[in-house]
Every structure is written in C-alpha cells, then in structure tokens.
C-alpha cells in the first residue's frame, strides 16, 4: 500500500450485513430508517420517514421550509437519478428589487432570502413514485417526536443560545417556540413542537380518505403547497429583521408556490479508478467533485494521499481550481458551464498543469468553453455581522456554527439513496406561528450581479451547496455525503481517495483527519473568501502543517475532531451491505444487519 496506513483504532466498526443499512447525522433518524426497513419498508420509505424526523431532531440544521438534493437508484436500474428538491427564486426576488433596498448581497437570514421551499414536496414525490408505505405510517415517527418530545441535542442548544437576543428583540415567534420559558434550553431538555405535529397530521389526514395511495400523497402535496406554505409566505411579508441589520418584508407569494413542484432529473457523472461517480448538475456544486477526481486520476497514489505533505498540498490546490470554476461558471442558467466541457480531457490537462509546489494566491477560473469567466465580487472582510446569518457551515477558523443533514439507506433489494436535506434552519427567519417552522434562506447563494450564471433571477434555482454522491462499479455501489456548506465535497474527497485508492475500510476513511481550503467565494452571507486559507484537523500532524505553511498556505488548526461529517452505505463485490458514519459531534450513527 502506497497510502499512509489507517489508524490502528477506529471509532466504530464498518458495519456489514445482508438485510439493510442506514446512516445519518442523527441517531434518531438512523434508528427510524432502520425501523422502517425492519417493518418491511424499502430504502425510500425509510429515507422519507427519517427525513421528517430530522426536521424535528435537528431543527438547527434543516427544516420543512428548506430544500434537498438526493441521488436515488431503485433496484434493477443501471444509473441513479437526481431527486430535485430545490425551489426557485420568487417572482418578486430580482436584482433590481433588492438593490432598491440598498442591498449589495442577499441577506443571510430573513424572508428576502427565501426560495420556494422544496424539501417536503420532494420527499412526498419520492414516497409516491418509489416508496411502498402509506403517508400516515411514514409520518408517524416525526409526529410522535414533535408532539411527545425528544431530547434537544447540544448543537441545537448552542445555536439557540447564539441567536437568543435576536429572538427576544426581533423574532418573538421564534422565542416563543424555542425558548418558551424565556431561557435557552439546556442540552437534553425534552422539547416539543406540537404546531409542526399538527401540520404533519393534516398532511396524513389529506391522504387517508383517498383510495389510491399515490393520489392520496398528491392530495397531501397540494395541502402543503396550497394551504400550509402560503401561511408562511404571508407571515413573512411583514417587515422583520434581516442579517444586514435592516427590516424588510419577504416577497414569496402563493403564485410562486403553486407554480412549482419537485421533480426527478438525470445525474451527471465521471469515471475515477474504475468507478463511475454520479452527482447532480451545475445548479449544485456537485460537478466540482467530478472535476477534482479527473484532475487527480493520473497522479501516482503517493501524490494524492491526504495524510502526507505533498498529498495535502495537492488536494488543496486542486480544490482551489475546481471551486474557482464553480464560482465563475456554475448556476441554474443557460450560460452555466456544460459539464462535458468542464470534464473534457484537454481542459482537465490544462487545469492540472497549474498545480505546482507552491500555494496559489488567486482565484483562477478557466475557460472550459472559450468564454471569459464572470467573477463575483471577492471580499476578504465580512463587515458588521449579526447573529442572524443563517450560516449552515463552519466558520473560517474551523469552528462549527451549524451544519446541514445527511442520510443514506440501502436495503436488501438493492434500492439505494444518498440525500442531503438542508435549509429552514431555526436561525434562518422568524418561526411561523401555528406551523412550528420557518422558511429557508437559500437565495443568499445568489449574486446581485447581472450576467453571472448564479445571479438572482426570478424563476431560477439558486446554486446550492447540497451535493450527495453515488458511485457504482459493476454490482458494487456506494452512497455517501456530508453536511458542511462549501466543504461538503471537500470532506468527501479524502474519504473517497482513502477508500478507492488507499484501501481503507469506509469507517477508517471517515475517521481519518481531513482538511479543506477557504480560498473560494463563500456560498453564504457575507460571501467572503480567504486567499491561501487552509483549515486542517490537528491529527494530520505537525510535519504536514509545517510543510503546508512552507509552501505558502495560511493554515488554521481546527482541533483533533472538528472537520468532516461524512456518512456512507454501500454494497461490496461479495454482495454484503455495509455502513459507516461520522463520529465528530457525537450525533451521527450507522446501524444495520
């Protein structure tokens, strides 16, 4: 083996079995998914049940007012497809409208940043087309936790504490929901959300009188889009505090909601070391991982080992190049880059030649189809920052301010899903009275810059960071992903290299120390970047850190177990199923048999 050997100790075993495997960022969601499998449901039933539980138990990381991207491969099909749960910008959300309010960025929190919420409709679409259970049975888990209570995880308690003054002074409905006693709840306090339980019960009730299962789920989808979400949109039209410090009304309308629905679309793919890797398109950041793998493909194994000085430097430099292309070319627009051009061999060779032995200091997008790139504004200073950032990732020092969620399921029949739900965090916008949730802020990932593929444009999806992954090789399959905003694929890449090239067990690869670059345009308000910035886990070692600094990287040590949130499931060449999950933060678990 040319890679650095894995540590002798791993935090958990890589689970193996023949019945089914579930993994997620919260043990309750994982247990829910596995419970559904044990009761005869398939992987898609299990994922939907777990996803609604995640709304309840990780409210600081996702919510029903948010969005999702998933890759699903039903048993017997050759390729996965994308479950598209990212809603577009409302008709009233334009560059001109926000500029008239004196804004040069979409605020990171508040109703102006709300896209059409896509998560719930997407989950219901998946259940309708690929699940087997009735909606009431799927929702029963989340309804129980919302109505009867669940212990609040430490991360949620910390998040509430950070926005407590905002809630008290400006978002009283959020204070009522999350601090009903007037104080921040302590970790493990049993918290309840009866309003959201009632919402879910209304969806289940809408489906029950309909004889046809699929028609019943469609009836629930209609209730959600035409009755529930309009109440949220109307509430946010009252001016309220945003991340810029101003009070603005939201612009989402009933017409916006009724004009959209979730859908399935083809995945994009590339090959790496005999595996085919699938991602969502350039309306996500997913193709950046494909480009990174293509850049790394021909290099000797030792040069791409993340645990060595040369390998760590190589990964950082490759990541800078692919995210420069992301920042210039990705978006939900006709002028976004074509994935074939991005991955063309001649272009990949051209980009690979830019990697040398020193840290690059600039943002260096290429011209994959010959056009001149349009660069967003690059800010190194955040300016005044309020608590209402809606930030779903880690800060520039590597400290966690929040995350996203992820879940993976594979069942005994071969149905497989990798899903990354996010948005609608409790710190996103004021909680809607009577609904028990708030709307998301994904529009902060757009630019108030005409002519950019990720410009704010009514009817277009914001370029999301949500980026689940699926890989196939013959009968083998891997479903994986991670929370982490701009770091999602950056944290997945070392895991993939250690498994596919280094021969690590999946749990060993997830446990191993990781790193990422901050030399990119942050997808979240206030949209800064840190030239030459690199964040590493201390366990990567002093030798690696010193070498990176010698090459010109500005390294921040994040702690021993601070970066990476990867979970994964799969099926190996012998037909055995496996599962593994991130130990960092002490929330994620995999179970299976």
Report on the structure:
By secondary structure, this protein is of the alpha+beta class. It contains 18 helices and 21 strands. It has helices at 27-38, 43-57, 95-99, 119-130, 135-148, 154-162, 164-169, 172-178, 194-207, 213-235, 254-258, 287-296, 309-329, 339-342, 345-352, 488-500, 506-511, 542-550; strands spanning 15-17, 20-24, 67-73, 81-85, 150-151, 190-191, 240-241, 247-248, 263-266, 268-272, 275-279, 407-411, 416-422, 469-473, 476-481, 515-517, 533-536, 554-557, 567-571, 577-580, 589-592. The strands form five sheets. The protein has a seven-stranded antiparallel sheet. The longest helix has 23 residues, at 213-235. The chain is globular, with a radius of gyration of 22 Å. The two termini are 30 Å apart. Mean pLDDT is 95; it is low at 389-402.
Mean pLDDT: 95
Straight-line distance between termini: 30 Å
Q: What is the approximate shape?
A: globular
Percentage of residues assigned to helices? 25-40%
Poorly predicted regions: 389-402
| Beta strands, count | 21
- What share of residues are in beta strands? 15-25%
- Summarize the biggest pleated sheet: 7 strands, antiparallel
Strand order of the largest sheet: 1-20-19-15-14-11-10
What Rg is obtained from the alpha carbons, in whole angstroms? 22 Å
Helix and strand composition category: alpha+beta
Count of separate DSSP helical elements: 18
């Amino acid at each position: 083996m040319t890679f650095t050997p894995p540590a002798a100790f791993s935090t958990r075993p890589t689970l193996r079995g023949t019945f089914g495997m579930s993994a997620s960022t919260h043990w309750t969601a994982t247990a829910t998914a596995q419970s559904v499998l044990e009761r005869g449901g398939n992987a898609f039933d299990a994922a939907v049940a777990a996803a609604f539980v995640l709304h309840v138990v990780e409210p600081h990381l996702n919510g029903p007012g948010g969005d999702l991207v998933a890759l699903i491969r039903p048993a017997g099909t050759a390729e996965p497809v994308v479950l598209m749960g990212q809603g577009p910008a409302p008709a009233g959300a334009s560059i001109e409208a926000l500029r008239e309010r004196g804004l040069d960025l979409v605020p990171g929190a508040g109703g102006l940043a709300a896209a059409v919420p896509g998560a719930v409709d997407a989950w219901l679409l998946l259940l309708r087309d690929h699940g087997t259970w009735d909606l009431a049975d799927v929702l029963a888990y989340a309804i129980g936790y919302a109505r009867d209570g669940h212990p609040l995880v430490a991360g949620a308690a910390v998040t509430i504490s950070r926005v407590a003054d905002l809630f008290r002074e400006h978002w009283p409905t959020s204070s009522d929901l999350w601090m009903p006693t007037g104080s921040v709840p302590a970790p493990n306090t049993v918290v309840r959300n009866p309003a959201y339980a009632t919402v879910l019960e209304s969806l289940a009730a809408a489906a029950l009188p309909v004889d046809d299962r699929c028609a019943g789920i469609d009836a629930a989808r209609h209730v959600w889009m035409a009755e529930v979400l309009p109440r949220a949109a109307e509430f946010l039209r009252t001016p309220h505090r945003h991340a810029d410090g101003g009070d603005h009304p939201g612009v989402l309308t009933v017409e916006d909601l009724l004009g959209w629905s979730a859908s399935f679309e083809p995945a994009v793919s590339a090959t790496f070391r005999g595996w085919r890797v699938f991602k969502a398109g350039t309306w996500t950041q997913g193709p950046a991982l494909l480009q990174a793998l293509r850049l790394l493909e021909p290099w000797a194994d030792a040069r791409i080992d993340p645990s060595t000085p040369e390998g760590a430097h190589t990964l950082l430099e490759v990541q800078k190049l692919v995210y420069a292309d992301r920042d210039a070319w990705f978006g939900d627009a006709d002028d976004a880059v074509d994935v074939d051009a991005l991955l063309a061999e001649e272009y990949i060779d051209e980009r690979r030649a830019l990697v040398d032995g020193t840290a690059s200091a600039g943002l260096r997008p290429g011209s994959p189809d010959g056009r001149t790139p349009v660069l967003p504004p690059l800010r190194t200073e955040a300016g005044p920052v309020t608590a209402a950032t809606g930030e779903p990732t880690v800060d520039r020092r590597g400290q966690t301010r929040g995350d996203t969620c992820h879940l993976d399921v594979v069942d005994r029949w071969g149905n497989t899903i990798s899903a990354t739900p996010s948005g609608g965090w409790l710190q996103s916008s004021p909680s809607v009275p009577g609904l028990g949730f708030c709307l998301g802020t994904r529009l902060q990932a757009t630019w108030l810059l005409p002519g950019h593929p990720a410009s704010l444009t009514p009817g277009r999806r914001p370029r999301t960071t949500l980026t689940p992954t699926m890989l196939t090789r013959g009968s083998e399959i891997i479903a994986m992903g991670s929370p982490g905003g701009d770091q999602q694929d950056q944290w997945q890449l070392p895991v993939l290299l250690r498994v596919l090239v280094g021969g690590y067990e999946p749990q060993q690869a997830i446990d191993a120390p990781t790193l990422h670059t901050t030399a990119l345009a942050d997808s979240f308000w206030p949209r800064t970047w840190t030239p030459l910035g690199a964040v590493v886990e201390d366990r990567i070692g002093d030798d690696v850190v010193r070498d990176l600094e010698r090459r010109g990287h500005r390294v921040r040590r994040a702690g021993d177990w601070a970066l990476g949130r990867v979970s994964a499931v799969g099926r190996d060449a012998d037909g055995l199923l496996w599962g593994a999950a991130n130990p960092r933060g002490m929330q994620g678990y995999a179970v299976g048999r």
